[in-house]
Hints:
Layout: E1 2-9, E2 26-30, E3 36-38, H1 44-53, E4 63-65, H2 71-74, H3 77-83, E5 90-94, E6 102-106, E7 113-116, H4 124-127, E8 130-134, E9 145-147, E10 164-168, E11 171-174, E12 183-186, E13 191-195, H5 202-212, E14 217-223, H6 231-243, E15 249-253, H7 258-267, E16 281-285
Parallel strand pairs: 3-4, 4-5, 5-8, 13-14, 14-15
Antiparallel strand pairs: 1-2, 1-16, 2-3, 6-7, 6-10, 9-12, 10-11, 12-13
Amino acid sequence: MRVTITNLYNDVVPQDSKFIADHGQSFFITSDEKNVLFDAGMNGKKLLHNMEQLEINPNNIDVLVLSHGHLDHTGGLKALLEKRTVKEPLEIIGHPTVFEPKGMHDAKKIPEEIIEFYLPPIEGELRKRMTLNFTTEPIAITPHLSTVGEVNQRPHKDGVEKRTRHYVNGNWEHDKLLDDLSLVLKTKDGLVLICGCCHAGLLNTLEQVTRNHKENIIAIIGGTHMFLFSEEEVDFVAGQLMNKYSSPKLYFNHCSGQNTIDRLRTQIKSDIIKPCLVGTKFSYDC
Length: 286
């Protein structure tokens, strides 16, 4: 069986393409088993535009997985639901806190304020167009594709900024982004890790994957939120990828940071670091 992963939404598009670039993330994962949308980008109109360019029908999406609750990964959901005409509600998989209020603390504002950065509740008739499947545990979406589940063991540096907040117990508190999750695809050659932002930390996520799966990791695709990592921190990640994980192919985008990608190229063989722009497709035999 062949599985294809297509990037639908991202900060960068190929030159002279008709795609729209925007801050956010979305992948479409197709197979004979199910068609899975991983994240919905920031803006519904832009998501649907890119889907139209790639001839992807919203009605053909069987499952939507949300990597976490930030708006640049959930913002296109309402437009997607409105565009669908099938009677069956869309199954949405995520962490139990994925729809909680989230934001960014901005100490530069006087007075200090929280910049809200989450999808407002979906209510009324539109709410009936989706079913929620929320858990902290890994979920098998198909026999070959599963979620990593909540990554709560984080011995290595993660991708959580000091300014992240979520609204709990009547207050805006620091958000450790425990809702962050990634996907794992089992192929004939090994595992492919697909990340939304990987706020849990790439190395922490990889350790959880290897605890749950025996196969080698052959590729990592998506955002890694390492744009604020120091050169020394990036070098440590590079060393782990080469020595502990046998140098998987890297297709980083979105929040990974061009500075991080450029630094990785000085530490890792450049031929395993490839771009991942809107329209990029990856195919694997499973």
